[in-house]
Amino acid sequence: MTEPSATDFKLGPSGSGAGACPSSPSHSFAPLLSVLLPAESPVPVGFSADRSGQNGRSLGTTRDKGFGLSQTEVAGLVRRAEGRRSAAQVRRFHKQFHAGSRWAKCGTVRRSASVAIQRTDLNRAIVSGVVTCGSQAACIACGSKIRAKRCQEVQTGMRNLLKSGGSAVFATFTIPHYVNDRLEDLWPLLSKCWKYVITGSVWQNFKKTHGFMGYVSATEVTFGKNGAHPHKHQLFCFDHQIDGDSTEFDTIRRLLTDRWKRAVRKFLGRTVSETVGVDIRLAKDAEGLGEYLSKIGAELCLSSHKEGRRGSRTPWQVIADGFATGNVDDLNLFAEWCRVSKGKKLIQWSAGLRDRLLTDTEKTDEEIANETVDATTEAYLSGDIWDELNRRYDGAAGDFLTCWEQTHPDQAVNAGRTFLAAHGIQTRITRTSTGDLFLCRTNGGAS
User: Fold this and answer.
1) Helices 71-97 & 396-405, crossing angle to 10 degrees?
2) At 136, phi and psi to the nearest 5?
């Protein structure tokens, strides 16, 4: 199926910024915070203190004044709100570029007649009963959950390795690339080079000689002035201690460097610079290794993305820039990233290594995205209300959850009804057969 061009992607009316939907309210947080925060709560830096509601209507505050928030909690609330809105922007992008895909449906399309509004032990409001896409590369919501799990796995595995007397060598392998190179061509070449390194008699002898246990492999892609830059991060694990100043470490470093240079020359016909193309060092500490390996697409929301090294950009920064400026090239670049990365495992353990270092059974990205968390169901929302809320504007459902989570559980339903009423959805409270609160439409309410 032919993909639509990014020139067809509608960023909203002139001056709306950040890809605001023409039918949506302003993406300023001032209207939202009039519901979210009581009068005595500090407004986060950078946000207006105006507490008027949508379209100038006052929304009031239903918060129990005893349910106060610290500065840290307010900052966390705003970060989550930003993350939900960023995820909604990306989802809208997928609705146009990949209509009907799980990426476009994730987090909004329901799987049952109603959805459950729940609160976790960390006071985070979540919704249960909706579709998840399970994509680490193309979805902010699923990707953040998957990366957190993979990070935890690697950190635990490396901690167990070091406690057992083993050691690890961290390596980054890069292929030379130019502005006209396409990611869909470079990615398989990167894979061929890696396969060359870990196959053949030289590699088999290396494993036996150095007590090699296996590796954790991570693929990362950034974009810079020379185009797409795919590269490999590898964590090589050994069954004994290796000193960074030892002859053995030097032998390992030289062998891996030579193998990579040969591979690049064989498959790309290009020359690797030792100062740029290969970086090999001893991993002395388990702390932070998992986080570093799991940083692929690590920007959890567009509003807090970081710059890549030396001015390069991660895929999340590319799409953030595209939303901010309307740059067609950036939008097409992110679409290419989604297409090429689809179905690929960005973080992978070599055969047998995970079983040696961890005791649990490995889950797929989709299974991680679908994992349930410990949470209390505070109410159910009828399916037609949920659907209507998602039609109001992109990010409305996320704003609803943000409104819900900042309110004391005893008052959250009233806060949710206030939010819905502000968007023309009148509701009434009933009970399910099991006695749970259920929000449904008022007969004759606005549609």
Assistant:
1) 160
2) -75, -30
Task: Give the pLDDT confidence of 53-97 residue by residue, as tens digits.
Answer: 333 322 233 334 335 667 888 888 888 888 898 899 999 999 988
- The residues with which 283 forms a beta bridge, in sequence order, are 168
Report residue 170 as tokens. Answer: 């961290």
Strands (E), 225-364: 227-238, 278-283, 347-349
Pairing of strands 375-382, 437-441: parallel
Which token pair is 298? 């690590």
CA distances from 369 to 34, 107, 132, 364, 373 (A): 32, 11, 7, 9, 11
Task: Return phi, psi of residue 335, to 5°.
Answer: -60, -40
Q: Which residues of the chain have pLDDT under 70?
A: 1-69, 274, 284-310, 443-447
Which of these, 324, 392, 334, lies nearest to 108 by C-alpha position?
392
Task: Of 358, 148, 347, give the one whose Cα is nearest residue 233.
Answer: 347
Residue 297's nearest CA partner among 183, 137, 174, 139 is: 137
CB 64 within 8 A of CB 407: yes
List the strands of the sheet with 227-238, edge to edge: 278-283, 167-174, 227-238, 212-224, 347-349
State whether the Cα torsion 247-252-255-256 is positive or negative.
Answer: negative
Give the CB-side neighbour count of residue 3, counting CA atoms within 13 A: 18
Residue 68's pLDDT is what? 65
Predicted TM-score (pTM) of this structure? 0.79
Nearest Cα residue to 281 out of 433, 151, 165, 169: 169
- How far is Cα of residue 235 from the mean position of the Cα atoms in its chain? 22
H helices of 198-313, in order, are 201-210, 247-268, 289-293
Residue 174 pairs in a beta bridge with 231
Q: Do the Cβ atoms of 337 and 229 come closer than 8 Å?
A: no
Tokens describing residue 342 = 């689809």
| Cβ-Cβ contacts under 8 Å for 313 (sequence gap 6 or more) | 222, 223, 224, 307, 321
Residue with tokens 């037609």: 384
Residues 6+ away with beta carbon under 8 Å from 403: 32, 35, 36, 415, 416, 418, 419
Q: Say which amino acid occupies 18.
A: A
- Taking only the tens place, the pLDDT of each residue in 217-245 is 989 899 999 999 999 989 999 999 999 89
Roughly what angle, to the nearest 10 degrees, separates helices 247-268 and 183-197?
140
Amino acid, res. 144: S
CA distance 31 to 15: 18
Which residues, other chains included, contact 431 with Cβ-Cβ below 8 Å and sequence gap of 6+? 437, 438
Tell me which residue of 59, 60, 77 sits closest to 68, measured CA to CA.
77
